[in-house]
From TrEMBL:
<keyword id="KW-0032">Aminotransferase</keyword>
<dbReference type="GO" id="GO:0008483">
    <property type="term" value="F:transaminase activity"/>
</dbReference>
<dbReference type="GO" id="GO:0030170">
    <property type="term" value="F:pyridoxal phosphate binding"/>
</dbReference>
<dbReference type="InterPro" id="IPR049704">
    <property type="entry name" value="Aminotrans_3_PPA_site"/>
</dbReference>
<dbReference type="InterPro" id="IPR015422">
    <property type="entry name" value="PyrdxlP-dep_Trfase_small"/>
</dbReference>
<dbReference type="InterPro" id="IPR015421">
    <property type="entry name" value="PyrdxlP-dep_Trfase_major"/>
</dbReference>
<comment type="similarity">
    <text>Belongs to the class-III pyridoxal-phosphate-dependent aminotransferase family.</text>
</comment>
<dbReference type="Pfam" id="PF00202">
    <property type="entry name" value="Aminotran_3"/>
</dbReference>
<keyword id="KW-0663">Pyridoxal phosphate</keyword>
<protein>
    <submittedName>
        <fullName>Putrescine aminotransferase</fullName>
    </submittedName>
</protein>
<dbReference type="InterPro" id="IPR005814">
    <property type="entry name" value="Aminotrans_3"/>
</dbReference>
<keyword id="KW-0808">Transferase</keyword>
<dbReference type="InterPro" id="IPR015424">
    <property type="entry name" value="PyrdxlP-dep_Trfase"/>
</dbReference>
């Protein structure tokens, strides 16, 4: 058997990786010609790779390492929990201390009467739960045909069959298997789709598509609307100010459930504990994962309001995961929440860092290739464009320029992702002012290099 260690030569590790490890959301064959970067350790806001490079992580892993890397407390809690009770299920009238403590804590933190938690191993699983739960809820109320879920194009709700069907990622849908009775409306992406409308007009128009859909499909057919308070994987799309108040009005008017997918927005990313608080909504269900454990252990779930929990709880809901409320993950999540709270990480991020980050990040709009730069709390994006005035797309295939820019970031030891031709950040909430300065200087350098390359290759052309 191969002995793998961090001390193996990088090329050897990359060859084994290319041969035997199938990567998510990747063209596997590509790893043969260009090996994956081997990340070996991390601390605070920094990663190190097998070549000894120190990298600034402006994505918090995959939007999840909210408290930063290297917190021994979480490792110690996991170690103690594994020795005490490494696993037990919660199916057959049993429970355990970590899951009880975590549930009670989440009920305290979540706004309003969101007091009940159904656990999953990930955000995708939790959204699969949500599909089944809202349908079961309406069936229990004698309305089994109220089973359509409305969601948004370019929304992201995960990668399992159910979750990807809720999501509106055309590349995922094109690969097949979408579940029935999900209806997609357009996203509130003013930059790309707003045309001649003002952002305010456009926000209203996009929200009113929900009302149109409910009326077309029939209120007696629509079970729920699901959305991310601020779209993450779709490119950090900050909706116009008019959008969420109008969605709220529509949800209040019609008898449908509102599911806020808080997998990214939750646990401080937008400056409050939950994105719902930032955009001013009170959902019936919130999907949680990622920042719940700061990514130190896999865990997700649905936080459910009193009325839905009562109706669902009045019958046998035939659904559950072996690892639901896993004791080690639950203990780690609870410790993560303790640190976020006691060290005032969310308040500090919001009050000390976010205003400076916003000022610096949004100033990137002065770069010749940047058309829009927007950030809310610690999630932000910039739109790359060949023409700021007309908000034009590049003539090249979407993502070509974004990829060039990401490559330059990677080469400059900055983790910043691209979604199409948008560059996105989601830094750990423990980012300091110095981290912000480093982020901006590396981002500017990368943008300059990408701009030079795009021009040299004749790609700085509007579609
Ligand atoms: C990442 C994500 C998910 C899926 O979570 P996984 O843990 O990857 O299954 C769901 N919803 C949103 C908004 C996400 O960003």
């Amino acid at each position: 058997m191969a002995q793998i260690s961090n001390h193996m030569a990088t090329a050897e590790l990359q060859a084994l990786d290319a041969d035997h490890h199938m990567h998510p959301f990747s063209t596997q064959a590509g790893f043969k010609t260009k090996g994956a970067r081997v990340i070996t350790r991390a601390s605070g806001t920094r990663l190190w790779d097998s070549e000894g490079n120190e990298i600034l992580d402006a994505m918090a892993g995959l939007w999840c390492v909210n408290i930063g890397y290297g917190r021994d407390e979480l490792a110690e809690v996991a170690y103690r929990q594994m020795k005490e009770l490494p696993y037990y299920n919660t199916f057959f009238q049993t429970t355990h201390v970590p899951v009880i403590a975590l549930s009670a804590r989440l009920a305290e933190l979540a706004p309003g009467d969101l007091n009940h938690v159904f656990y999953a191993g990930s955000g995708s699983e939790a959204n699969d739960t949500n599909i089944r739960m809202v349908r079961f809820y309406w069936a229990q109320k004698g309305k089994p045909d109220k089973n359509i879920i409305i969601s948004r194009k370019n929304g992201y709700h995960g990668s399992t069959l159910g979750a990807m069907s809720l999501g509106g990622m055309s590349g995922m849908h094109a690969q097949g298997g979408v579940v029935q009775n999900v209806h997609h409306i357009d996203q509130p992406n003013w930059w790309a789709e707003g045309g001649d409308m003002t952002p305010e007009e456009f926000g209203l128009e996009r929200a009113q598509q929900l009302e149109k859909a409910i009326l077309e499909l029939g209120e007696d057919r629509v079970a729920a609307f699901i959305a991310e308070p601020i779209q993450g994987a779709g490119g950090v799309i900050v909706p116009p100010e008019t959008y969420w108040p109008e969605i709220k009005r529509i949800c209040d008017k019609y008898e449908i459930l509102l599911i806020a997918d808080e997998v990214i927005c939750g646990f401080g990313r937008t400056g409050q504990w939950f994105g719902s608080q930032t955009v001013g909504i009170q959902p019936h269900i919130m999907t949680i994962a990622k920042g719940l454990s700061s990514g130190y252990a896999p865990i997700g779930g649905s936080i459910v309001c009193d009325e839905v929990a009562e109706v669902v709880g009045s019958g046998e809901f035939n659904h559950g995961y072996t690892y639901a409320g896993h004791p080690v993950s639950a203990a780690v999540a609870l410790e993560n929440l303790r640190i976020l709270d006691e060290e005032k990480i969310i308040e500090t991020a919001r009050e000390q860092i976010a205003p400076y980050l916003k000022q610096q990040f949004e100033a990137l709009v002065d770069h010749p290739m940047v058309g829009e730069a927007k950030i809310v709390g610690h999630m932000g994006s910039i739109a790359l464009t060949p023409n700021k005035e007309t908000r034009a797309k590049f003539a090249a295939e979407a993502g070509t320029v974004g990829y060039i820019c990401r490559e330059r970031c990677f080469a400059n030891n900055l983790i910043m992702r691209h979604v199409g031709d948008r560059m996105i950040i989601s830094p750990p909430l423990v980012f300091t002012r110095d981290d912000v300065d480093l982020l901006i200087s590396r981002a500017r350098k990368s943008l300059d290099e990408a701009y030079a390359k795009v021009k040299a290759e004749g790609l700085f052309v509007a579609a």
